[in-house]
Amino acid sequence: MQPTRFEIGLEQLSKIDGEAGHNVIQSLEDISPDLAKFTIEYPFGDIYSRQGLDLKSREIATVAALTALGNCTPQLKVHLNAALNVGCSEEEIKEVIIQMSVYAGFPAALNGMFAFKDVLLERHSDS
Questions:
Q1: pTM > 0.70
Q2: Which parts of the sequence belong to the Carboxymuconolactone decarboxylase-like domain (predicted)?
C-alpha cells in the first residue's frame, strides 16, 4: 500500500524541522486541527517531497522568501533551523539573508539576521 500524503508529509516534517515542526503542529491541534493536517499534507507531503530540488535548495529558497516577507519571524526561525538540519552552513544562511537586503531592503535583512542570531544562540545553548 502506498503511503498517504499525510504519512509522506509527516516523514518530511520530521526530517526537515524535527521537534520544532512537531511543536508547530501540536500548537494548532486545539484551535485548528484541519490547518495542522493541511500543513503536513500540502507543504511537506506534496511540495517538499517533489523531485527537482534537494531539501537544502528548498530551505535556502524558503529562508530567502520568509526573510523577504519580513513579518514571519516565528516561521523564519523554524526554517532557519531546518536549513541547518538539512546541511546549510551558517555562512550560507548568512549570505542568503544578506542577499535579501538587495531585494527586500535592509529592515527585512536585519530582522532576518537577528532571527538567525536567536536561532544560533538557542542551538548553542541546547548543546
A1: yes
A2: 33-117
